[in-house]
Amino acid sequence: MTDDVWSWLDSLKSFGYNPSLDNTATLLARLDMPQHSFPAVHVAGSNGKGTCCAILANAFTLSGKCTGLFTSPHLMSVNERVRIDGSPIPDILFEDCLKQIQEASKIDPVVSPTFYEATFLVAMLAFRDQGVERAIIETGLGGRWDSTRLVDADCCILTEISLEHTEILGETLAEIAEEKAAIVRQGRPLLATWPYDNSVRKAIERSVRDHDTAWWWRGDRRRAFKFSNAGKPFRPLSSKTWYDGWMPYQQEAYQLASMALYIMGEKKAYQEIERARTHTNWPGRMQWIDHDAPILLDCAHNPSGMARACEQIRFLKSRDMAPMPGVIVLGTTMQKELDAFLQPLVELIVEGNIGHIYVTQPPKGRKDPVDCKRLAEELRSHGTDAEIIAIGSIDLALKNALGTAQQLDDELPQPVLCIGSIYLIGAILEIIDEDGLMDFQNILITPEGEDGVDPIA
Prior knowledge:
The chain is α/β, with parallel strands linked by helices. It has helices at residues 2-11, 22-30, 49-62, 91-106, 115-129, 166-169, 173-180, 198-206, 249-264, 267-271, 273-278, 303-318, 338-352, 372-380, 394-408, 422-432; strands spanning 40-44, 67-70, 82-84, 87-88, 134-138, 153-158, 190-193, 214-218, 223-226, 287-289, 295-298, 327-331, 356-359, 387-390, 416-420. The strands form 2 sheets. It has a 9-stranded mixed beta sheet with strand order 4-3-2-5-1-6-7-8-9. A 6-stranded mixed beta sheet has the order 10-11-15-12-13-14.
C-alpha cells in the first residue's frame, strides 16, 4: 500500500494548476476540517515569503508552541513542505495522511486533487494529528485560488510583489497584487510590504474594507503605519539613519515577521524573534556551503529575485563580508522576460570580472526548463567577455565549475555561485549530499545553552 500511495501522489502531478478551491474544500470537509484545529499566519508575495515564514515558525517554536510550517515547492524531499518545529515530518506520518486523502478522494463523487493540493492536505492532517498549536502557511501560486486560503488565518502578510506567473496571475503588477491580496481576512490584521508602485498600493488597499486593521511596513524607516494613515506625509530620512539605501531580503523578512508578531500581540514569540533570525537555516537562499570550493546557492527564480540576489552579492563584497564568486552555474525554468532575468547577472559578471559560466538546465518542475544551449546563447548575446559553456548534466556542470574554481586558485579556490530555479538548487544539494550526511532540511539550528543542553527540548 505504501508504494501505491506514493505512486498515487506522483500521478497527481499530471493535473497541473487548478484555479479553484472546490476540490480542496470538499476533501477538507470529508476529512473533518483539520484546518480548523489551529490558528495560522498566512503569507503571500513574490519574493522573501519563504524566509519570512521560516523565521516566524522558528520564533513560535522557540517560544514553546508546537508549530507547523507549510511551504512549497521543495528542494530535495516532498516532506520538506510539511515541517513541525523545524523538521520535515517523517515518511510514516506523510504516508498515513496520504492514505486518508486517497480514501477521501474516492468517495462518490470522486474528487481528484492536484499534487500541490494533496501536499497541503497532508500538512493539515499532520498538524492536527501532532497537536500543532500554531501554523505558518505559505501560498503556492498567487492567493485567490490557492488551497491555503482555506486555513483559519488570524493574520496575513504580503511580501514584495513582482512580475511572475503572468500567464495565470495577470500581465501587470497591479493585477498580480490583486490576486495575492485576495488572501486578506476581513477584520483580521494584514501587514504588507510598502510598494513604490502606486497601482500596486491601490490594488492592495482596495482589498481591505477596514483600513484600521491593515498596516504598511516601510523597511527603510523601520516603521509600520495603518492604511488609514497612508496618505499622510512622512519626514525625510535624517542623515544619521541606519539605512543606506539597500538591505538583504533576509533582513526584510525578519523585520516583517517581527512586526507581524507585534501586531498580533504574540509577546513570547516576539521576544524570540532575534534568536529565531540567527538560528534560521533556510536552504537554497543565499546559502554558503564548504566544499572542494566554497559554493553559494540561491533560488533566484524570477527577474526581481535575480536582481535582489546579485545586489546582495555585490553588497557583501563591498563590505568585505564575502568574496565575489569566480565561477557561475546557471539554470532556470521558462521566463516571460528572459532578458530582464539575465540582466542583473550580466551586470554582476562584468562588475565582478567573472570569467567562467556553466549553463545547465534544471529538472522539469511546475514549469519547463529553458534549454541550456538556448540560455547560453541568450547570455552570450549580452556581450560579456566570460567563457560560457552549455552542459545539460547538472552533475557535470557542477564538477566542471568546481574544477575551474580550483584551477583559478588552488590554495584559496574562488566561490562557485549556483543560481536560478529552485529545482536546480535542489538537484545541486542532492549531488553535494550524495551520502545523506548533511542536514539541509531542518530549518531551526538548535540553540545550545551554556551547559550544552538544548533549551527548547
